[in-house]
Amino acid sequence: MSQKFWRALPDTSLLFVSLAILWGTSFVAIEVGLHHVPALAFAALRYDLAGVVVLAYAVTATDRWRPRTRTEFMSVLVPAVFVFGAYPALLYVGETYVSGAVAAVVVSLSPVLTAGVGSALDLEEPLTTTGLVGVALGILGVAVVVDPSPGALDGSIVGVALVLAGTACFALGSVLARPFDAGLPKPTTQAWAMVGGAIGLHLASLARGESLADATWTTEAIVALGFLALASGAVAFLVYFELLERIGATELTLVSYLEPVVAALVAWAVFGNVVDATTALGFVVIFVGFAVLKRHALTDVLATVRRRVHVRT
């Protein structure tokens, strides 16, 4: 698929919403698949398939389909370990304890954690007092989602803790990847990172004692895996690359706050689950934390949106 193809697609707003739908629905698809396939094996299979598809795209659509230098290999290794290895491992195991909708809310903390980790590692500007308030609000939002009972350590707390740890790994990987950016085309980097992450997930699955012989390949399981690998994996990442060029990283970050809404609606449609008021409140607190932390960037984004609307009208 060429750049001409992507430019012929509908406007940016539709692509943005499509990405939110694909990634938001993925949390529920994971929940469906985990009823039939061991957690880490399921994650590994997803990135086996997605990695191959994105790699095929990189071979046909870019001029550099594989890394060659040490720096280029490092630019692949970091996301392979943290973004496509540790993050899905903890997310998938976490979703054996909590619903996909709850997991999506916790993962929406990712932009806040990314800013905090980047500042702590001196890879971004130090956080101001207001920025620290934003990070604290984000963490408070997760605590609201957990809603722990005194002295209790139930499955929901374990699940949220695992998803939160995975989200922290995602944030760390996103930050650490920046110094190793070797200029490889993004599809190339993501494809090899997916493949590397899948290998790590297979090894972790074996170490955990999982076996694909224990999987029950029902229609639901096959559809869930196909959706995760192709729709929310390969296709969604290609849409992500295009949006990154069109609107930039800050505006694209906002997709994280549509994903829990999509996940909640899909969970209601598939399972009849309704997100409780505590989880909804936690999501609002996390978003407020993000808004405080990124208030200047959000102001610029809103100004850009207003200019677009003015031009169209």
UniProtKB/TrEMBL annotation:
Pfam families listed in its UniProt record: EamA
Superkingdom to which the source organism belongs: Archaea
Domain EamA: residue ranges: 14-146, 159-293
Residues spanning the membrane: 39-59, 71-90, 96-115, 127-145, 157-177, 189-209, 221-240, 252-271, 277-293
InterPro entries recorded: AA-Vitamin_Transporters (IPR050638), EamA_dom (IPR000620), EmrE-like (IPR037185)
Subcellular location field: Membrane
GO cellular component terms listed in the entry, alphabetical order: membrane
Bilayer topology annotation: Multi-pass membrane protein
Keyword Transmembrane helix: yes
Sorted UniProt keywords: Membrane, Transmembrane, Transmembrane helix
Protein name in the entry: DMT family transporter
Species this protein is from: Halorubellus litoreus
